[in-house]
TrEMBL record:
InterPro entries: DUF604. It comes from the Eukaryota. This is Transferase, transferring glycosyl groups.
Length: 363
């Protein structure tokens, strides 16, 4: 993989920084393009033309162009897993939507959102390059770069191929509910991490991402994938989001309920309620006895002898309401260990019925 960072102006770099930075380029002047969206910024034109400008660099052996924002985090191995599913010799425009139903209405349900990142095959990039400047001139009223890109795709007759692992994350607050119930697909990208809480508690956002890279390096195919288990002795429901968190619920809850994200987050439009999401959600448990006990990943390592990963999850200590149910109390559990064999080919053969069952755990 090769990367290019496109800027509107040159920046100062130290002598040794150039070795650790990707290639830096300055975008061409776009002042001659019309832009009349009063709510947006004309930099959207410059950003939308990055695809053509990167193509014109003439780099060899290119199959895909992948675009993301300056606050987009990619899981590169999973990105490659997704792209390897498709024939790069054909026209493909791959990405995903916003989590906000209102965002998708205002912009488009046919558009790949740039913050979540999107991929364009090389032949399609060549076709875009031939007509993009003329296409951009026809849409001076559009808001951003990604809707301009989709407008040009529509003119070429290329639909969006949706992959749910690209995450725009047009939400505020705590991403826990979304990450703990990740859809059955590789985690490809994270976005808007500067406007949400750190994904792990009591650390900065950067420290949280650094923490996530530990299990990610051990088994990127399995990161955030959900397993739902049942402890018959204690009558508990256990949800494992591998490499991130484990939840224990009192009682037996159906997979249909647990695989649905709990609303720990807020809509991008502050006045909107849960009906304004583009997917199903469930409320945070109101019954004091069914409030989940959360255990966050605290360490991860590879057991080379047994060829398995060992991840440890430590209970997040927050006040829990009094529960009068006469059953085992998850508060007595301090740590949980999950044993899992890495499976790089998981997504080459995965089915929804099998992907839920791949972990052993102990506490």
């Amino acid at each position: 993989m090769r990367g290019v960072v496109w800027l509107d102006n040159s920046v100062k770099t130290e002598k040794n920084e150039s070795k650790s930075l990707p290639e830096l380029r300055i975008s061409a002047d776009t002042s001659h393009f019309a832009y009349n969206n009063k709510q947006g910024h004309r930099s959207a034109i410059r950003i939308s033309r990055i695809l053509s400008e990167t193509l014109r660099l003439g780099k060899e052996n290119v199959r895909w162009f992948v675009m993301g924002d300056d606050d987009t985090v990619f899981v590169t191995e999973n990105l490659l897993r997704i792209l390897n599913k498709y024939d790069h010799n054909q026209y493909y425009y791959i990405g995903s939507l916003s989590e906000s139903h209102l965002q998708n209405i205002y912009f488009s349900y046919s558009m790949a959102y740039g913050g979540g990142g999107f991929a364009i095959s090389y032949p399609l990039a060549k076709a875009i390059d031939k007509m993009q400047d003329r296409c951009i001139q026809r849409y001076p009223g559009l808001y951003g770069s990604d809707d301009r890109m989709q407008a040009c795709m529509a003119e070429l007759g290329v639909p969006l191929t949706k992959e749910l692992g690209f995450h725009q994350y047009d939400v505020y607050g705590n991403l826990f509910g979304l990450l703990a119930s990740h859809p059955i697909t590789p985690l490809v990208s994270l976005h808007h991490l500067d406007v949400v809480e750190p994904i792990f508690p009591n650390v900065t956002q950067l420290q949280a991402l650094q923490k996530l890279t530990v299990p990610m390096k051990l088994d990127s195919a399995g990161i955030m994938q959900q397993s739902i288990c049942y402890d018959k002795v204690n009558s508990w429901t256990i949800s494992v989001s591998w490499g991130f968190a484990v939840q224990i619920f009192r009682g037996v809850l159906s997979p249909r309920e647990i695989e649905m994200p709990s609303r720990t987050f807020l809509n991008w439009y502050r006045r909107a309620d849960y009906t304004a999401y583009a997917f199903n959600t469930r409320p945070v448990m109101r019954n004091p006895c069914q409030k989940s006990f959360v255990f966050y990943m605290s360490s991860a390592k590879m057991d080379s002898y047994n060829n398995q990963t060992v991840t440890q999850y430590t209970r997040h200590r927050v006040p829990h309401p009094l529960c009068r149910w006469k059953m085992a109390n998850p508060a007595d559990v301090e740590r949980i260990q999950v044993y899992k064999k890495p499976d790089p080919q998981l997504w080459d053969r995965v089915s929804s019925s099998l992907s839920r069952i791949y972990s052993n755990f102990a506490y």
